[in-house]
Structures are given as structure tokens and as C-alpha cells.
Specification:
alpha+beta, 11 helices
Amino acid sequence: MMSNQDGKWWNKKISRRDMLKLTGAGAAGVAIGASGFGGVMNAMGYDVFESVVGDASNKVEFYGKHQAGITTPVQKHVFFAALTVVSSKEDLRELFKKWTPLVVRLTNGELMADPSTNTRIPTSDTGESVGLDASNLTITFGVGPSLFDKFHISHLKPSELVDLPHFPKDQLVEEWTGGDLCIQACADDPQVAFHAVRNLVRAGSGKVEIKWSQAGFTSFPADGSTPRNLFAFKDGSVNPSKKEENDVIWIQPGESKSWLTGGTYLVARKIQMHLETWDRTSLKDQEATFGRYRDSGAVFGKKGEFDDFDVEEKDVNSNYIIPDTSHVHLARKSGAQMLRRSYSYASGVMTKTGAHDAGLLFISFQKHPSQFIKVQNSLGRMDKLNEYVTHRGSALFACFPGVQKGSYIGEAFFNAL
Ligand code: HEM
């Protein structure tokens, strides 16, 4: 239990973990029931929502040049939500001002409060993250092309921020496509990620609504090697190095609208993976699909996962060593780069077929949507992977630059409105 020897403990930093200790020990016999955590603490006469600084060790810094959750080391879980804005641009600006301190609290591993009202209403935080720590939570925001049309602010719309073109073999469904805003919450705990989105949307009630959402996961082997996707292949081996970030990911001054300097573009694709078909395919064919060996993750003709390779290299019979219909061959040949930060999903069964509704929530970050378009066009109809996957959802968002202390998320954008 925290001591009050050196002052009022309730005015000090109180993490979600501390809260649990307090109710567990100090409020013996008082159950955290329907009234929630705040209810318990209020019953004891304490304001549980005073805390402003968290003490969690596994927390990611919120402030910085760029938003967190992009080049941040990948966490184990994502909860991704695309939102529809149902209010005015002035309301949205106020919402982002309100969201910013809430996001700071959440990433600190604290309960959320509503600073504008300093409310004691127990339901200020829905409470399911009580006892859970910061879990490396990051929350990343972006705006979609439709927002600019809705608000009639074409002068602020970068020319490249338009819906992605239709690609061969796309079978997109409206309910997993588009969105005026996105919130990507990543954390090492699935409930912490979900809690963040749930509470932010709740704080925006009457201003935003969820259009579609997707939870995802990725699992890291104990030896620190690259996680495997649901086709059992290492996924994420080739990504830009730190040195390449400004060339590949971060929008530089003069490269787009000024409010986007330091930001990036997020592409989300909900891609169903036909696990049943894959599981009937021989290992040889599976490996030829990617042009990489399943176990080591190395490209054909190499030993190590990270060995450099020349995609044009041919064998003595003048055949490409990495087959020209393979995913890696075609992706590399496009010449475009991006940061891939995808998560697997498993969302039950497809009602018509009884097949797994499982796949990849493909998420990539790039300074211009054309980078994604170039790779996807190169994969086109040729990619052998097409036999095993179907693109069901798609969205593009411009992610704001990072936030400096004293500022709020998207300030440069909202100031220009
Ligand atoms: C369910 C769909 C997909 C699966 C299962 C998948 C899986 C993989 C795997 C296993 C690799 C090789 C290891 C690695 O470098 O990470 C890879 C590489 C790559 N994939 Fe995908 N991928 C999918 C969709 C996409 C899409 C939609 C794009 C972009 C349009 C894309 C772009 C890339 C790129 C750029 C590489 C690296 C190529 C290089 O070596 O330079 N992938 N993918």
C-alpha cells in the first residue's frame, strides 16, 4: 500500500497497478463491482482521477518528432479502428484537444479521466485495464480522404491522399473499407489495446463512431527471431533501416502539405488467408510462393534470413533463383520500399463456407501512397500468393506528425482549418 507520510498520496502518480493494490489492501471487503473502480475510491472519499504521471517501466514515450506506433518496436497486439466523424470540424478539433491528455494517461498505464470536467463519475474510465500496466501501449492517429470531402477542406488535402485504386483480384467489402479517421492501438496486452480505443471512442461520443475495427496479434519466439504469419513463414524480415527512415517513411518539409511534415501514410488491408487451401499445399509449393525457405526464412539460394540477394540472379539453366511469380521476387522488383507492421487475425468462421475467417491485417507506413501502389501493382495478377489470399478491406490514412509538450495531436492540421 502506498504511504501518505510525505503528503497526500492521492495527489501523486497512481498507476493502474497501484490502484489495484489500494483497493485490494486498503478497501478490504469492498468489492469492485458494477459501480467500478472510481465508485470504490469515491466511496472512500478519494479522487481517483488526479494522477498525471505514470510510473510504468514498459511505457513508450508519447511525445516526439513522430507519432509512436510506427517505428516503435512491434508490440504483440493491435486494436485498429476506422472511425466516421459525425460532427463539425470545430468539434473534431476540440475532441483532439480532449484526446491528447487522455492518450498520455493511457500510454502511461493510468486510468483515463476527463480533464475538461474533472468528473468524479465512476464511469469516466470503463475500468477493464485496472491492474494492467502500460504494456508498451502506443496510439497512432490518421485522417482519411473522406474527411476532407466531408469538411469541404480541399485546400488542406494533399493531392496524394485519395482512395487507393482498385487492384486486380480485390474483393473489398464496404464494411471493412475507408474511414474518416483511424486509431491504431498497439500493446503487449490485448485488453490494454482494446481499452484504449474503447475509451477514446467513448470520450468522443456524438462526434465519432466506429466504422470498422480489427484486432490482431503477433507472437515473438523466445530467441528474438522474426515472428511467423499464419502461413508459418517469417514475416517482417525486410524493412527499412534506421538510416532509410527519412527516405522511406517520414514526410520531409516541402514533400506534402506542411501540416503533414514529420508524418507518414498508413495503408491498412484486411487480407483473408485461405488456411485450408494452404494446408493442402506441399512445402515445396509453399516455399516457391514466397521464394523463401520456411524454416530459415532465407531466400532461395541463401542460408540466412537476412542475407542480401539479387532478385535478377539466375541459375545455370537461366531460370530465376527466386521464382519470378513469387511474392518476394515481385515485391522486390517493384523497387519501392515501405515499413510493414502487420498483425495476424482470427475472427471466427466465414458463414457461407465454414472456413476460417483469418488472415493478415496488413499495415504499412510510407511517405507516399504510391510506394504501396507500386508494390501492389507489381504483385498484380502474377503473385503466386494470390491463390491463397483475398483482399477484403482497405483504407488509407495520413498520420499526423508527433506531438510536442504543450501541443495536441494534429495541431498543425487543425490550426490550418
Ligand atoms: C496475406 C498477405 C501477405 C502475406 C502472407 C505476406 C507475407 C510476406 C512474407 C512471408 C515475406 C517475406 C519475408 C519478409 O521480408 O517479411 C514478405 C515480403 C514482402 N511483402 Fe508481403 N505478404 C502479404 C501481403 C503483402 C502486401 C499486400 C504487400 C504490399 C503491397 C507486401 C509487401 C511485401 C514487401 C515489400 C516484402 C519485402 C520484399 C523484399 O524482400 O524486398 N506484402 N511478405
